[in-house]
Amino acid sequence: MTYLLRVLDDELDALFPQLAAISLDGPKGVGKTATAARRCLGLFQLDSAARRETLLADPELILRSPSPVLIDEWQLVPEVWDVVRRQVDRDPTPGQFLLTGSATVRPGSAAHSGAGRIVRLRMRPMTVAERGGVEPTVSLRALLGGKRPPVAGDSAFTLEDYVEEILASGFPGIRGLGDRARRAQLDGYLRSVVDRDVPDQGLAVRRPEALLAWLRAYAGATATTASYARILDAATPGDSDKPAKTTAIAYRDVLAQLWLLDPVPGWAPTRNVLTRLQQAPKHHLADPALAARLVGASHDSLMAGDGTTLGPQDGTMLGHLFESLAALSVRVPAQAAEATVGHLRTGNGDHEVDLVVVRDDGKVVAIEVKLAATVNDRDVRHLRWLADTLGDDLLDAIVLTTGPTAYRRRDGIAVVPLALLGS
């Protein structure tokens, strides 16, 4: 399989020559091993029982391997984390260790946090730009620069192409498969999470189907701020034997530990220029393809506008899945630009901005996501309100669309086809 460069490659190129140890965190299948292995000479794959047994007996074996060393699925032998940490304390020479993990360490592990010694980077599924269909022409980093750069470029992507990208998955090993095989692989991925990965994290699942039903309900709440109580109710309609609220919270927490949930938090401005903001997260799974598979969405059903979501936000299932694809395609370059991503919703719901990309100094780029090829004044009313509210703290405002051309409106708001947004 041909390796497609990721935005994270640029981050590693900048950081690994200056840092002794970096950990890549993300769900299984996201491409962590392939990306890290390109930079390493020594390799310890801890999903191998034999390799685990060896390192459990002698964790310091990693210090006798050619450097740089890749420790894959390190969380399966947490002791190696402490070996790396102590080695970095002794010798901070850059470029020694890359670690990958598809789960956080189980509660009760003795592993040290690694703060100050091991830098952690999140690896997400491939963005639309990383998948190679269209060459991006609009840089999120440039938009964060605050100079409102020119916006231009043409995309051949149609609505059907975006539907295909939602269903195709951003997991490298899945997206190249045919439709039938891809669906089977996604089903197997989800089943493995429920039957094996969750129990491996220490949560005994008495009824696996109840967990799968909760996941389906969560997928149905994609890109909404639906309460967890409502998600639980949707998972158990008419069921008098509902899981306890504490059980549902345990589901949420362990799926987050597996990097399967990737909610966008509510944005809280640092300068207190906005009040009465709702802080509930917008729900997203790691990959929109997982959400689509869980709710049974197909190319035809999405194109027909079938499916409704939970939560206060309006729209079709396709609209919410497109927003999830956009959120993924924004969060990856935002991380590379050292920015964070939230969303804005006022307490009474009269104003909402889908994505707010925040620099360290609190200044922001505001993004609306619109499942349409054209943009009118009504579509930008929340961006205009935010511009009036924030003043100079708003660096730029854009609308991500399914349209063919990137341009700036007369009011300065940028209109950008999602396929043209890059790092």
What's the topology here?
Layout: H1 7-15, E1 21-25, H2 32-37, E2 42-45, H3 49-57, E3 69-72, H4 79-90, E4 97-101, E5 118-122, E6 138-139, H5 140-144, H6 159-168, H7 172-175, H8 179-200, H9 208-220, H10 228-235, H11 245-257, H12 288-294, H13 299-303, H14 317-336, E7 340-345, E8 352-358, E9 364-369, H15 381-390, E10 394-401, E11 407-408, E12 414-417, E13 421-422
Helix pairs in contact: 6-12, 6-14, 8-9, 8-12, 9-10, 9-12
How would you describe this structure in keywords?
single chain, 423 residues, alpha/beta, Rossmann fold, six-stranded mixed β-sheet, five-stranded parallel β-sheet, 14% strand, globular
Characterize the structure shown.
With 423 residues, the chain is an alpha/beta fold. The protein has 2 domains: 7-122, P-loop containing nucleotide triphosphate hydrolases (Rossmann fold); 129-422, no CATH class. The protein contains 15 helices and 13 strands. The protein has helices at residues 7-15, 32-37, 49-57, 79-90, 140-144, 159-168, 172-175, 179-200, 208-220, 228-235, 245-257, 288-294, 299-303, 317-336, 381-390; strands at 21-25, 42-45, 69-72, 97-101, 118-122, 138-139, 340-345, 352-358, 364-369, 394-401, 407-408, 414-417, 421-422. The strands form 3 sheets. Strands 7-8-9-10-12-11 form a 6-stranded mixed β-sheet, with helices on both faces. Strands 2-3-4-1-5 form a 5-stranded parallel β-sheet. Helix 15 (381-390) links the parallel strand 9 (364-369) and strand 10. The two termini are 24 Å apart. The model has no long low-confidence stretch (mean pLDDT 93).
